[in-house]
Design goal:
28% helix; alpha/beta; four-stranded antiparallel β-sheet; elongated; Methionyl-tRNA Fmet Formyltransferase, Chain A, domain 2; Rossmann fold
């Protein structure tokens, strides 16, 4: 028989909070508080888009739900301490959570990470999966500890197709379905303190943020690498693209094709890509 838990949710957008909330509620548990990080790092300035995102989350809050906008990890721990939490569920939170937060819920913290851990630990697993040309994305629910994405695994699968024209909206239906399956299993296991398989020390890779040089097309790379570079930028956001020099003009490349298409041809190390969409670079 399911023992109902009081659960706090940490995430970064309306549909993400909604998916987490629904999985927890369907499993017989009660979400009691949301937390949204308004900055990439604790104690740093509020991100420019955070106010807009916080407004959308606030507008979609279920009746009676509290929303925390912590400025520091310590403040988050102190605030969560008043909710009598049994569990904290995290999805897409950029901060490393200290013991002051991890120790608050009775059953600890579950993190949902978009990779088949231990591959792609770090803040940008989806970007690296696209960059590397992966066909499918993994999803893992694991116990959170003080190391990034290194805690024991409660459930995982690699089942999310990565579309050729990949955007957050295109990826979300498959990702949401996988998240629901994986988190449901994790919720069933988390109350047993012995559950969770330690991560292997083999196959560990790190998915950091994109380096500055990644914003410029390097034609000494293969055509697939350049094509996936453009796809990665497209996923990051509308109008994003690496810069290339085409016929003496600097352009921002928004879309490419590996087969002949209308647009300039760009010769790479092993063959061409065709620039299907671009805009002048500032």
């Amino acid at each position: 028989m399911t023992v109902a838990m009081r659960i706090g949710l940490i995430s970064f957008g309306v549909r993400e909070f909604t998916a987490l909330h629904e999985v927890c509620a369907d499993a017989g548990h009660t979400p009691v508080v949301y937390a949204y990080s308004r900055s990439m790092r604790p104690g740093s300035a509020t991100d420019p888009a955070a106010a807009t995102t916080a407004g959308r989350i606030t507008a979609a809050l279920p009746a009676g739900m509290d929303l925390l906008l912590p400025g520091s990890s310590e403040g988050l721990g102190t605030a969560l301490g008043g909710y009598g939490l049994d569990l904290l569920v995290c999805f897409g939170f950029s901060w490393r959570l200290p013991p002051a937060v991890l120790s608050v819920p009775r059953h600890g913290v579950i993190n949902v990470h978009c990779s088949l851990l231990p591959e792609y630990r770090g803040p940008a697993p989806v970007l690296w999966a696209i960059r590397n040309g992966d066909l499918k994305l993994g999803v893992t629910a694991h116990r959170m500890n003080e190391e990034f994405d290194a805690g024991p695994i409660l459930a995982q699968e690699r089942s999310v197709p990565i579309p050729e024209d990949v955007t957050p909206d295109a990826l979300w239906p498959g990702l949401a379905a996988s998240l629901r399956r994986v988190l449901t299993i994790a919720l069933e296991r988390v109350t047993d303190p012995s559950s969770g398989e330690p991560q292997s020390a083999r196959g560990v890779t790190y998915a950091g943020l994109m380096e500055e040089a990644f914003s410029v097309v390097d034609t000494t790379r293969t055509s697939h690498e350049v094509h996936n570079q453009v796809r990665t930028h497209r996923y990051i956001g509308p109008g994003r693209g690496p810069v290339a020099n085409v016929a003496g003009q600097r352009v921002k490349v928004l879309r490419t094709s590996l087969t002949p298409a209308d647009g300039p041809r760009l010769d790479c190390a092993d063959g061409p890509v065709w620039i299907a969409e671009s805009v002048p670079a500032e």
